[in-house]
Design brief:
Blueprint: E1 3-7, E2 11-16, E3 19-24, E4 27-32, E5 36-41, E6 45-46, H1 49-57, E7 62-65, E8 71-75, H2 84-95, H3 97-123, H4 129-143, H5 152-168, H6 170-174, H7 191-212, H8 232-241, H9 243-255, E9 264-266, E10 271-273, H10 275-290, E11 292-294, E12 301-303, H11 304-319
Parallel strand pairs: 1-5, 2-6, 5-7
Antiparallel strand pairs: 2-3, 3-4, 7-8, 9-10, 11-12
Helix pairs in contact: 2-3, 3-4, 3-5, 3-8, 3-9, 4-5, 7-8, 7-9, 7-10, 7-11, 9-10
């Protein structure tokens, strides 16, 4: 089974025959191309068009992060599973307000459900359990309005309110010794916000890689507004899985003190993760993606990574009138 390759060291990455070589000060590491699902490039790496052409031939995306660990962009090879029929159906469901709203509601409903699962888990385990319980009740009340939303902009407002209250429970979940008051982006201002930003970028790229291996067009989305310079469908799918993968990893890494305050480099107006923190997170993230659960409907074990692919297939079935879209809602 192919897997993700995360490259933190600086050097050169090149193709020789059917093998990729990663050249660093420590030597050359061969990577058989059949073993690669996606590349994640964190180090300062030299590469050329011969390497990129090879990735395109083998249908392998590459995601690039800058010196501070912030997502910079993706090399998205030409699509190899094109379907004009599905593209027309995607556009039709976006252009029709009622059809778009139906899909957007399902995405928001799954995100809210998975957020509530996290709150329910920590309701009995957090040091300030009463605070978590109170916020859980608030989130349930806000989520009950999802089906009443009249358009996508109202739905986005509801989801924003859910996440605002959800983040308000994090100090109780993480403990008073952890610095976190509210979600701050662009740039993050403390360790937790830096972890959330980094983790959300990883989730976005994972969703994008899974979309690439289907016939879906990643620029046509339903909850997030399609725009220039982004693959907005990946944002839609990432919303469903962020509570299950990213947020749970952050809770675990902080509460077990695997990641500590000194893993962050805090400057005057921003904070970013040091390389050792990014490596710790990526290792835990990849382990989570490979973890399997017994799927209720399929009656077999599937990995978290494959759950994202299955979500793509569910959406395709809905778009082609095979089966109504029911978003993924965890049960554990």
């Amino acid at each position: 089974m192919s897997r993700n390759y995360y490259i933190f060291k600086s050097g050169r990455i090149r193709r020789q025959d059917n093998t990729i070589y990663i050249e660093t000060e420590e030597g050359n590491k061969p990577v058989p191309i059949e073993d690669v699902d996606s590349f994640y490039l964190f180090g300062e790496l030299d590469l050329n068009t011969k390497f990129l052409n090879f990735l395109s031939q083998k249908n392998i995306p590459a995601h690039v992060f800058n010196y501070y660990g912030f997502y910079a962009g993706s090399f998205y090879p030409r699509e190899y599973l094109n379907s004009g029929f599905l593209l027309v159906r995607q556009v039709e469901h976006y252009s029709n307000p009622n059809k778009r709203l139906a899909i957007a509601r399902e995405i928001s409903s799954a995100a809210a459900h998975n957020i509530l699962l996290n709150l329910a888990y920590y309701q009995s385990r957090a040091k300030e359990a009463d605070a978590v319980a109170a916020i859980k009740d608030e989130v349930e009340g806000i989520a009950s309005r999802i089906d009443e939303a009249k358009d996508v902009s109202e739905l986005m407002g509801i989801e924003g309110n859910i996440r605002e209250r959800y983040y308000a429970a994090w100090p109780a979940i993480l403990g008073p010794e952890t610095e976190f008051e509210k979600r701050v982006r662009r740039p993050p201002d403390n360790l937790i916000n830096a972890l959330v930003s980094f983790g959300n970028s990883m989730m976005y790229t994972s969703a994008l890689s899974e979309i690439y291996h289907t016939q879906l067009n990643p620029t046509i989305s339903y909850l997030h507004e399609p725009g220039e310079r982004r693959f907005s469908l990946a944002l839609d799918l990432a919303d469903i899985f962020k509570p299950l993968i990213v947020d749970r990893l952050i809770f675990s890494l902080i509460n077990t003190r695997q990641i500590k305050p000194d893993h962050a480099d805090k400057q005057m107006n921003y904070c970013y993760l040091k390389e050792d923190a990014r490596k710790l997170f990526v290792a835990a993230y990849e382990e989570k993606l490979q973890t399997t659960i017994k799927h209720r409907r399929l009656k077999r074990h599937v990995s978290y990574r494959h759950l994202i692919r299955l979500e793509c297939y569910r959406l395709i079935k809905h778009l082609t009138n095979v089966e109504r879209y029911e978003s993924f809602k965890a049960w554990w």
